[in-house]
Structure formats: structure tokens, C-alpha cells
Amino acid sequence: MPNTLETSLTVSGLYCYRYDKAFFGGLDFTARLGELIQIEGENGSGKTTLLKTLCGLIEADEGEIRWGNNSIYSVMEEYRGGLNYLGHKNGIKAGLTCLENLKVLSALGNQVTTNDYSKVLERYGLGGYENIYAYTLSAGQKRRLSLARLSINQALLWILDEPFTSLDEQGKNDMKRVFQEHLQANGIILLTSHDNIQWQDMNVTRLRL
Amino acid sequence: MWKWITKYASPMHFYLLVNRLTPWLGWSAAILFILGLYGAFFYAPADYQQGESFRIIYVHVPSAWMSMFVYMVMAGAGAAGLIWKTKVSDAVARSCAPLGASFTFLALVTGSLWGKPMWGTWWVWDARLTSELILLFLYLGYIALQSAIDDRRTAARAGAVLALVGVVNIPIIHYSVEWWNTLHQGPTVSKLDSPSIHIDMLIPLLLMAIAFNLYFSAMVLIRARTEIIEQEKNSKWVQELIVDKVSV
Amino acid sequence: MNRVSMINLFATLLFRDILLGMRNQSELVNPLIFFIMVITMFPLAIGPEQNALMQISPAIVWVAAVLASNLTIDGIFRSDYEDGSLEQMILSPHSGFALVMAKILAHWLLAGVPLIIMVLMAGPFLYLPDTASQTLFYTLLLGTPVLSLMGAIAGGLTMGVRSSGMLQALLILPLIMPLLIFSVSAVNNSMKGLPVTGELYFLAAILVLALTLAPIAVYSALKIRLSE
């Protein structure tokens, strides 16, 4: 386990080629503990590609991504153990109940923080929905269920692609609170968002692609 | 030596290398084809059993050899692309497929043409022909997979995995079909399985085999070069090339 | 990665897939109905004469089984790919091998085992002698897992691709030919009273080869397609 105080996500000279196009053009940045970075850019600028590259789903063609002192490619297992990723799609099964979905998510993750799924559901606005099939949920509710993974698996680094999609005002505020707690616990968050999020008094760095 | 190889993994150097090599490969192929065909038709004596119709082996056998060889090259280039992530090897692998499929098809057609005077039927379920047919399906599957995936790099990598799975399977398929054929006592469309082949018949065959090989080398490099140009169309050296050609 | 979490992942995913399969039973039944229809076509085409059908019954049931199995390949990864679950599974720090094996085992239990039962039931309809049924069972037991393993490779490579069904059939059929040759040969031999051990050993060898190498190919295919 790297010394938590020293840990940070450092990106240098990042380049990615997709569909014969070059993305990022040598991106450099560092995300430190307690930081939230909002990645901005127009459609097609590569926000989702960047997030996937940071997760290791896409391999960088040039440049380095370091977690602490090590390139993520050399410590991939450990890196992924400390990572929570939320993609564009929800990553939950419509044919399973909310509770079953959460159980699967906890088996996939590394350090399970809680087995009290009811409490987690309540926190994400799905209290009492344990045995409800996911296909009956609205788009916003599905998103909330997907976000619940953040409280199930303990992870230092959160990489979130459009976490606020489909959420109502209440949902957005709830999530902001969750993010704030994570930052206070020395977590790192990288996210993208189309919505014009008012971060109020939260310390947010913006990164433009 | 290692440096030399990695140098030509660069798309631009590959382009220049291909420009230099293809005239040599092309002309040698042409010369050897002429020599080989002359030998096939005039030099090699007529077979005492089959008469003149056996001469089709001079196209059939080299085609069959090439179909196998090209698959190995395709799988090897694919593996190189997976391991070293070089664009050139991906382009070469992708270029091999239509050529390999054509050789396979040629082997099947010539085998079929051979079968007609021999057995009176347009097709016979001989071990080699059946293996070639399955090989054709492997090629077609590879081509179909690559064209179904839009991103070039992903298509190349997926194709490489498929080609490697195919390479492992080919010996199994080959052996199974051989065994299946002997089980059912099928006819054999093979001149080469006889005790020994006369040297006068062998020489043109070898010439044709080398000619086919040179032809393939020239063709695959030309195709790969085109792929590379297309892929690198936004890079500086390609832009300069276009300007040069246009301003001439 | 520790062993407990790997086993936990395997068990959870296996159970999950079976649960999802059982909740969507109509999807499981379709290939079996297709199988029956193919079986029915042969007597209609050849004629009801007992000897003629009996002679080729091993071939008919095995070909129909392969064709029916092709229909199930798409379902192995499609749903997970489309709703983003597969992405999450690949990101798991636990063993990718466990993930792949869980999916393949689930597929075999949901698609392969029912097919085995259907084939054994269809045999007598084509006048397959009972003595040959035992050999048929062994060939199915050894062969259907290979169909699942190869199917997973084809399914993994073609996730999310347009008209993937045709492509999957094209990819998988050349790889399945040896299986077909030896299975039918074994059953034919047992009908003639000849020994079948050679063929069965070869089938077992193919199965072992597939068990060791296919998961690697499947995992590579998944990683490659998810990096698009």
C-alpha cells in the first residue's frame, strides 16, 4: 500500500489515437488528495476517452499516468482496487433487484465498506427499493443505483463520467454532499459534466480539453 | 539488427522501404512466373497416368502452399501488433487476408478443375480440398470481423486474436479432416503423394512456388503501404507527399 | 487479489447469470425450439423410411445441436456489454479468469445442458438405437462445453457489432468442424459395434485444450473490444 499522504494521480504528456485522430495532445495534470477536478470540453473533445484511459480501459499511446510513484500499468491490480469508475452507462442489470445489483457490485469491488445495503439505498434516495426490479426504475433512479457503488466499495480515486445525468435537483445536491464527504476523507474525484454545476463552497479545479 | 527492425516499424520508413522493394519483387515474380509456366507446359513430361491434365498442379499446389503460408504471416503480424503495438504490423496483417483468401479460392477452383477430368465431378471431398475450404471460411471470418469493427486499431487487435485462435486450430482441423477422409476412403486429388516425383516435374513446381511467394510479397507490401498512407493521412510526411505529387 | 475474493466473484457472477437466465426463460427456450424444427425438417426432406434416417441420425442431431447453439452465442456478452456491466467487470481487480469462466459456465448450464437433454430425447425420433445413445451422451458431455468456450470467443470478439449473429456463425463453424467429425464418428461406430475410445479421447483432448486456451482468448477479446 503506498503511503496515502504521498499518493496522487499524475498525468504527463498523454496522447491517445482513436479513429485515426489524436486526442489530448500531451496532457499534463496532477490530482492530489482532497481534490476534485472537473474535466470540461466540447462534444468529441475526448472527455470520455480520457476517463477510460485513466482507468486503464484504453491504453495510452504516449505519455505516462502515475499513481503515486508507479505507472498504473505496472500496478494495475492495486490501482483498480482503489478505483471506483462510473461510466456513461449505468452498469447495473435491469433484470435484477436493487439489492441483488448491489451485492454483485460489492463482489466486483475490493474493499467492501458495508454490508448494510438498505442504509446505502436510503442514502441514495432509494430507501425501501431493495426488492424492486431495476427495470421498473426511472432513468434518474437507475443512475442513483449506479452511483450507490461509491458507498459500497471503498476507493480513494473516483472517476465519474457524467454522474449527474438524469438526476433531479435533490439528487444533484445529495451527490454533491457525497462528493464533499469523500474529499474530506482525502479522496480524489475526477468527473465530467455537461450540466452547469454550482459547486458552492467546494474547491474545484477545472481542466479544459 | 534490432534497430533496423524497429526503424521499419515506423510508418514513414516503411513507406520508403516499400517503394524501393516492390519493383524488384514485382519483376522477379514476373520473370519466375514466365520461367515456371514454360517449365510447366513444355519442360515437364506428361504424366503417364493423367496425361496433360495433371499440369494444373503447377497452379494448384503453390496456391495451396501460399494459402497456408499467408495465414501464418497474418497471424504472426497480428501477434507482433498485439505485443509491440506497431501500426505497420497491423497494416500487414490486414493486407494479408484478401490475398490469402484469394490463394485459397484459387486452390479450390484449380482443385475442382482438376477433379473434373479425373473423377468426372466438379467437386470431390478430398482431404486437402476440404481443409482448404475450411481455411477459406477462416479467412472470410477474419475479413468480416475486421470490416465490422470501425476503429482501425481495435479491428486489428481483434483480428489478431482471431488469427491466433485459428493458428492453434489449423493443425487440429487438418488432422481431423485427414482422418475423416481416410475413414471414408475418399479419393485423393494428389500427384505428390506418389513414391517420388520426377525432378523434371519438380523444378517448375519450385519455380512457381517462389514466383507466387514473390508476387505475394509485392502485393502485401503495396496493400499495407496504402493502409498506412490512409491511416497517417493527417501526419506531416503524408501531407508533404501529397503536395509533392500534386505540384509535379 | 486474494483467493477468497476470486471465488466470491466467480460464485456471484455465476449465480447472477443463472438468475438472469431463469428470469428470462423465453430466451432460453427459443434455441431448443429451433433445434426441434431442424430435426423435423430431415424426415420431411428424406422420407420416413427407418433405415435411411437411422443411418444419418447421429449426423442430424449433432448438426442441429451446433446450429441451435450458434443462436445462443450472442446472448453471452451482449446484455452486459450494452448496459455497461461488462466494463465494471473488467475493471474489477479480481481475476479476469474467474470472470470469464463464470460467464462460460453459466452459458453451458443455461444453453448447453438443456441442449444435451433435447438431443438425447430427439435421438429415438430419428430411430437412433438406444445402445448408441450412451455414446451420444458422452460426445455431448465433452462437446457442448467446447461449443460454449468457442462461442464465448466468437461472442467476445463481436460484441455490439451489427448483424453479429451471422458473423459469429462464420467465426465459429470452422473451429467446430473437428468436434463434429469426431462426435458423429464416435456415435456411428457405436452403432456398428466398433470401439469408440479413440474418438472420445480426442474429444476430451479438444476439451482440455479449449479449457486452457479459450479463456485467455476470451479475456483478450473483451479487453480489446472494451477499449474502443
Describe what is shown at a glance.
The complex is a heterotrimer of chains A (about 210), B (about 250) and C (about 230). With about 250 residues, chain B is an all-alpha fold.
Question: What would you note in describing this structure?
Answer:
- The complex is a heterotrimer of chains A (209), B (248) and C (228).
- By secondary structure, chain A is α/β, with parallel strands linked by helices.
- Chain A has helices spanning 47-55, 76-81, 98-108, 117-123, 139-147, 149-152, 169-184; strands at 8-18, 21-32, 36-40, 62-67, 70-71, 83-86, 111-112, 153-154, 157-161, 188-192, 204-208.
- Chain A is globular, with a radius of gyration of 17 Å.
- Chain B has helices spanning 2-8, 11-43, 57-84, 87-119, 127-148, 152-183, 199-231, 236-247.
- The radius of gyration of chain C is 18 Å and the shape is globular.
- By secondary structure, chain C is mainly alpha-helical.
- The model of chain C has no long low-confidence stretch (mean pLDDT 93).
- The interface between B and C is medium-sized, with 31 and 27 residues.
Individual helix count of chain B: 8
Strand content of chain C: under 5%
| Total DSSP E strands of chain B | 0
Terminal CA distance of chain C reads: 27 Å
How many E-type strands of chain C?
0
Characterize the largest beta sheet of chain B: strand count, sense, and whether it forms a barrel: none
Q: Indicate the low-confidence ranges of chain C by residue numbers.
A: none
Tell me the major beta sheet of chain C: none
The whole-number mean of residue pLDDT values of chain B reads 88
Q: Quick one: overall form of chain C?
A: globular
Overall structural class of chain C, as computed from helix and strand content, comes to: mainly alpha
Give the topology string of chain C: H per helix, E per strand. Answer: HHHHHHHH
Give the class of chain B from helix and strand content and strand pairing. mainly alpha
Through-space gap between termini of chain B: 37 Å
